[in-house]
Amino acid sequence: MELTISKGILGVRPPVAKPHPGFYHEVGEKRFRKLVFDHYDAIKTSDIAFLFPVFDDEDFAEAQKHAADFLIEISGGPDYFTQSRGEHQMVGRHAPFRIDEKARRVWLELYIPLLEALEDEGITPEYIESFWDYLNIFSMWVVNTPSKEA
Fold first, then answer.
1. What is 21-141's CATH number, 3.40.50.12500, 1.10.490.10, 1.20.1250.20, 2.60.120.330?
2. CB atoms within 10 A of CB 112
3. In 135-150, which positions are buried (b, 16+ CB within 10 angstroms) versus exposed (e)?
């Protein structure tokens, strides 16, 4: 299984495919939520913690829930996100935050060991890769700030 991070270019939004629905069905909702919550827990001590409400437990828990709801829905699960938040509009929802390519890469890097653990749990590697491919490409869409590094 190969989980590589593609180079994003500010303002470029490549076509993105939703994850294979087999990913959600094999992982199941409970384990899927754990995946997203574990990712958020890793964010708390990362270089991108400043982009998240890490000092407000209630807001942080709400952000975790919204992220899990969105990713479950986009992966073929129930439409929890649409029911509670309406249309996805993820580019607009992320617009208030200064997200650069470096932050995107950190966000993705934090997912890699969590997804590798799913393979160890018996989740089909192709399904994991389809979820990764979605994260990798769609995360380019929310980058809205030039990186400081050359």
1. 1.10.490.10
2. 13
3. bbbbbbbbbeeeeeee
Q: pLDDT of 64-123, one tens digit each? A: 999 999 999 999 999 887 657 656 666 566 766 789 999 999 999 999 999 999 999 999
Q: Which candidate, 5, 8, 6, places its Cα nearest to that of 143?
A: 8
- Number of Cβ atoms within 10 Å of the Cβ of 59: 12
Neighbour-count burial of 58, counting CB atoms closer than 10 A to its CB (0-12 exposed, 13-18 middle, 19+ buried):
exposed
DSSP 80-95: HHHHHH-S--HHHHHT
